[in-house]
């Protein structure tokens, strides 16, 4: 199962990061989104990241041009007819994802692997929207993609061993570390991370300490690079809430109940860094 050409669907924060690391590893990549504007914004972020590498003399201007030449903008899923792997990084919505996967199933070549970067939605259910569930897999990258080493690889119920191995090899080629995980709500990363973040929000809600104090305890006491409330703002409070709801519904256990304060912030449109305000205010 040789992988040369890739399509990344979604040119947002995650999709553009994934496209960047794939192009840097030598793969030819279509960066796809619904509108040309979105794709251009994603390419702009990649350009900025690579320019920083050139400034730091970790890459030459010539190498940067080569990486950029491997990225092709795309606004139609029809481009998937020429690829060996699709990595979907669209919005976290099951209806949208199953529609994308069923469309891709009709367009992508028979041998192509269809991967999702979903942070918590069941891979098995996404795979059921296709006639090739054995070729559907989860590739969960962490934010910021160019920096974070982990790719959590999620096996759906039907994922074939050869498909897992091809994605494991490809992840190594990206100079990332693959970790194998089975398909359960939140996988491993978000099953552990999100309840910690939710507990930090409860700690604030119950007036145990200020937001700054909560973050400082976890940064200095546990050596976390960011405190949990800063991290929640960085991830997006809507995403955190959505993942907590997925855990709550998936396991049916009260311990995953989202904190009312998290719900309130999301209802207020305080979504974190991306909206300019979450637990903190961003200029
Ligand atoms: N894109 C590309 N590179 C970035 C970047 C971005 N968005 N943000 C930071 N960097 C790079 C910087 O250029 C810098 O590179 P060099 O060291 O090579 O010069 C390096 O990262 C460190 O950056 P800074 O010095 O500016 O800041 P920092 O030391 O505080 O690190 C951080 C920033 C890497 C984001 C760090 O704070 C961190 O690791 N935070 C935790 C991140 C985390 O937990 N991510 C997982 C979130 S959960 C998730 O993604 C999954 C999910 O499903 C929700």
TrEMBL record:
Its EC number is 1.1.1.157. It holds the Pfam family 3HCDH_N. GO terms for molecular function: 3-hydroxybutyryl-CoA dehydrogenase activity. Keywords: Oxidoreductase. The keyword Transcription does not apply. Belongs to the 3-hydroxyacyl-CoA dehydrogenase family. This is 3-hydroxybutyryl-CoA dehydrogenase. The lineage of its organism: Bacteria, Bacillati, Bacillota, Bacilli, Bacillales.
């Amino acid at each position: 199962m040789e992988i040369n050409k890739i399509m990344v669907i979604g040119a947002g924060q995650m999709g553009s990061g994934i496209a960047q690391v794939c192009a840097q590893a030598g793969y030819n990549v279509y960066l796809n989104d619904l509108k040309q504007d979105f794709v251009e914004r994603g390419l702009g972020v990649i350009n900025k990241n690579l320019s920083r590498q050139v400034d730091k003399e970790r890459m030459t201007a010539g190498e940067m041009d080569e990486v950029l030449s491997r990225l092709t903008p795309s606004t139609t899923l029809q481009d998937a007819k020429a690829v060996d792997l699709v990595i979907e990084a669209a919005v976290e919505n099951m209806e949208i994802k199953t529609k994308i996967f069923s469309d891709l199933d009709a367009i992508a070549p028979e041998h192509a692997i269809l991967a999702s970067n979903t942070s918590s939605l069941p891979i098995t259910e996404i795979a059921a929207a296709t006639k090739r569930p054995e070729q559907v897999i989860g590739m969960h990258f962490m934010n910021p993609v160019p920096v974070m080493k982990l790719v959590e690889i999620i096996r759906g119920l039907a994922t074939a061993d050869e498909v897992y191995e091809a994605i494991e090899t490809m992840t190594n080629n990206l100079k990332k570390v693959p970790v194998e995980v089975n398909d359960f709500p939140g996988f491993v990363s978000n099953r552990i991370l999100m309840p910690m973040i939710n507990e930090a929000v409860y700690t604030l809600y119950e007036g145990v300490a200020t937001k700054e104090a909560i973050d400082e305890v976890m940064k200095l006491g546990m050596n976390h690079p960011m405190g949990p409330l800063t991290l929640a703002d960085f991830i997006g409070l809507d995403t955190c809430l959505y993942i907590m709801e997925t855990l709550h519904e998936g396991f049916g256990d009260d311990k995953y109940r989202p904190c009312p304060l998290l719900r309130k912030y999301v209802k207020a449109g305080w979504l974190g860094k991306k909206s300019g305000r979450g637990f903190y205010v961003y200029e």
